[in-house]
């Protein structure tokens, strides 16, 4: 609960689901099966004498990671954030208890059994559903029930604080008026090309800037990684594949593809006997073998005169169109192949496939080669992965592992925990493994990391260096650029201030103004937001006059001349939304004020 002080990965819905599970366990007497946080918890912080255990922090970290909203590589930073959240929650829980906010056992039970997440298909509370969800949530019955209790307490506290603050009708009207207000102004942006002063960076300037901004030139703690990668795709690329095996796969994949066929049909039963028809069909097949075209042979021998006039063409057929016997012959042929005589429905048929409705063998060859090679190296890949698991677990290095598996030991550049790694090191879970306790602190090889179905990786720390302040000579170029930019910005600032002073004294100034007319606070505009925001902070000008102000931009400065302020059209929907947001911000501000006050008075050790 208390959504405003929770990370997005710990939604109220998720909390309730977990809470319901624990409470159901409590209702059905299952608490005795579980321990709260383990047999030997370590205290990582205390809040007014109440401990926060390491296991609590780890549970919150794992839940956030499982939610998918926090990348695994941010695990170390997440740990500090979660500890800070637990401290805040502890403070609010203590305040709620001191204020008499209480939740009875009956209230907890009623809440748990009423939640639809734990109902069966008949809409009734199910102990089995409850147990199954609790088992996968990472909570024990006691820990969940206690956390659900304090969560409700904090929710009541937050609601009480929100309802205790309000705005008067005239305040809401004033807010709505400001919201729909429109302003017209002119502006001028000054950049590097507008600087009148010379930029001169001295050695003293460099040293002074470097001394004042040490934090910019601190190199974080870094590691250089060694890693071994097994890649099924690479193994497949190195495998030579038999050509006939490729054709077999192609035939299999295309055996049901629609195809265009021609035939020569020789009937029996009336004018000729079966033996006579078979003999004639064999004669026709011999004519084809001797080089006669299928079309000519069809005209000479086929009793299907309609198709014979079209070279025997029957058009495009699908499997099952002429029956199993015909299919067995037609769908077993490659394009251009001719069958032996096939007996079907009182006739012998000689079939030719003239076109297959799909990619040709040559078009599919490369993909087929990849598929066949992957299949052929599958067992070898699995064996090498198992060998990698066995060898890396016992080895004190990775070079021997790479040598044993015939792989190349690869190395990274220097990396910090929050750097954007490249290549396979950028895959999810890799950097978090590199900075895990076993690898980073103890110096062990990592466990085998499954990057995807085709790649497995093991890494270790090859070299480690502590955070340090880089010497000036090493960062001189960056410092020079920063000092020059600062001097340039100061020169622009002085020019803008002089321009504003002249404008305020009504002196004649030659300026190419840009205009923004009747702009509202929420207008969709390409103007820099800093200029728009400043224009709405400026005092209303007198009728026919203007007010002037300099605006600092990230690079450069701007001069704004506010010319007029007008009342925009009423938008009831927008005004209601703004009023609601204002109430929420006010409530959050009150809550944050309480948190800050509690922190300032609390005895917090971490």
- Unreliable runs, pLDDT <50, ≥5 residues? 1-41
Principal-axis shape: extended
In which range does the helix fraction lie? 40-55%
* Count of helix runs: 22
Tally of DSSP β-strands: 17
Oligomer: single chain
Structural class: alpha+beta
In percent, how much strand structure appears in the residues?
A: 15-25%
Euclidean distance between termini CA atoms = 24 Å
The averaged pLDDT comes out at 81
Strand order of the largest sheet: 14-3-16-15
The largest sheet, given as strand count, sense and whether it forms a barrel, is:
4 strands, antiparallel
List the helices and strands and how they pair.
Blueprint: H1 12-27, E1 43-47, E2 50-53, H2 54-66, H3 75-98, H4 105-114, H5 127-135, H6 141-164, H7 169-179, E3 181-190, H8 203-212, E4 218-219, E5 222-231, H9 232-237, H10 243-254, E6 259-267, H11 274-289, H12 294-301, H13 305-308, E7 313-317, H14 324-330, E8 342-343, E9 347-356, H15 361-376, H16 378-394, H17 399-405, E10 410-416, H18 430-434, H19 437-441, E11 449-452, E12 455-465, E13 468-469, H20 476-504, E14 514-520, H21 529-535, E15 547-552, E16 557-567, H22 572-601, E17 604-605
Antiparallel strand pairs: 1-2, 1-17, 3-14, 3-16, 4-13, 5-10, 5-12, 6-7, 6-9, 8-9, 11-12, 15-16
């Amino acid at each position: 609960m208390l959504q405003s002080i929770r990370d997005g990965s710990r939604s109220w819905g998720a909390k309730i689901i977990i809470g319901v599970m624990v409470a159901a366990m409590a209702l059905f007497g299952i608490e005795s099966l579980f321990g709260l946080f383990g047999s030997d918890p370590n205290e990582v912080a205390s809040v007014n004498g109440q401990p926060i255990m390491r296991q609590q922090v780890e549970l919150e970290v794992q839940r956030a990671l499982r939610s998918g909203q926090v990348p695994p590589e941010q695990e170390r930073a997440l740990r500090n954030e979660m500890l800070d959240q637990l401290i805040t929650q502890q403070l609010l829980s203590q305040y709620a208890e001191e204020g008499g906010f209480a939740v009875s056992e009956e209230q907890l039970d009623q809440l748990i059994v009423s939640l639809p997440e734990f109902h069966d298909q008949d809409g009734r509370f199910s102990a089995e559903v409850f147990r199954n969800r609790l088992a996968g949530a990472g909570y024990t019955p006691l820990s969940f029930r206690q956390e659900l209790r304090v969560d409700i307490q904090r929710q009541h506290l937050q609601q009480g604080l929100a309802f205790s603050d309000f705005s008067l009708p005239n305040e809401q009207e004033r807010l709505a008026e400001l919201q729909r207000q429109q302003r017209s102004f002119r502006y001028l942006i000054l950049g590097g090309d507008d600087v009148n002063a010379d930029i001169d960076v001295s050695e003293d300037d460099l040293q002074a800037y470097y001394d004042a901004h040490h934090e910019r030139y601190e190199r974080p703690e870094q590691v250089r990684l060694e890693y071994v990668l097994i890649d099924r795709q690479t193994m497949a690329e190195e495998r030579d594949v038999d050509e006939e095996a490729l054709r077999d796969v192609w035939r299999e994949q295309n055996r049901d593809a629609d195809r265009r066929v021609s035939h020569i049909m020789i009937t029996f039963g009336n004018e000729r006997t079966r033996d006579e028809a078979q003999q004639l069909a064999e004669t026709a097949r011999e004519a084809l073998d001797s080089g006669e075209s299928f079309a000519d042979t069809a005209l000479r021998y086929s009793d299907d005169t309609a198709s014979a006039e079209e070279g025997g063409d029957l058009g495009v057929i699908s499997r099952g169109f002429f029956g199993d016997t015909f299919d067995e012959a037609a769908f077993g042929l490659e394009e251009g192949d001719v069958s032996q005589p096939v007996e079907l429905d009182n006739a012998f048929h000689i079939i030719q496939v003239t076109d297959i409705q799909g990619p040709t063998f040559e078009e599919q060859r490369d993909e087929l080669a990849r598929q066949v090679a992957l299949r052929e190296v599958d067992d070898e890949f699995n064996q090498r992965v198992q060998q990698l698991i066995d060898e890396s677990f016992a080895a004190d290095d990775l070079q021997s592992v790479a040598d044993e598996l015939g792989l190349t030991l690869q190395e990274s550049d220097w990396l910090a925990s929050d750097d954007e790694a490249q290549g396979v090191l950028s895959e999810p879970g890799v950097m978090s493994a590199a900075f895990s306790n076993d690898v980073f602190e103890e110096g062990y090889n990592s466990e085998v990391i499954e990057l995807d179905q085709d790649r497995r990786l093991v890494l270790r720390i090859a070299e480690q260096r502590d955070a340090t302040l880089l010497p000036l000579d090493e960062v001189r170029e960056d410092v020079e650029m920063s000092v020059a930019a600062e001097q340039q910005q100061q020169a622009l600032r002085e020019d803008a201030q002089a321009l504003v002073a002249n404008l305020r004294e009504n002196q004649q100034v030659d300026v190419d103004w840009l205009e923004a007319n009747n702009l509202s606070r929420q207008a969709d505009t390409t103007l820099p937001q800093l200029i728009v925001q400043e224009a709405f902070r400026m005092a209303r000008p007198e009728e026919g006059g203007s007010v002037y102000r300099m605006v600092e931009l990230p690079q450069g400065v701007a001069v704004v001349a506010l010319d007029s302020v007008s009342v925009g059209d009423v938008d009831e929907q927008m005004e209601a939304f703004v009023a609601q947001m204002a109430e929420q911000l006010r409530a959050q501000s009150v809550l944050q004020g309480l948190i800050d006050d509690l922190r300032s008075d609390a005895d917090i050790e971490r």
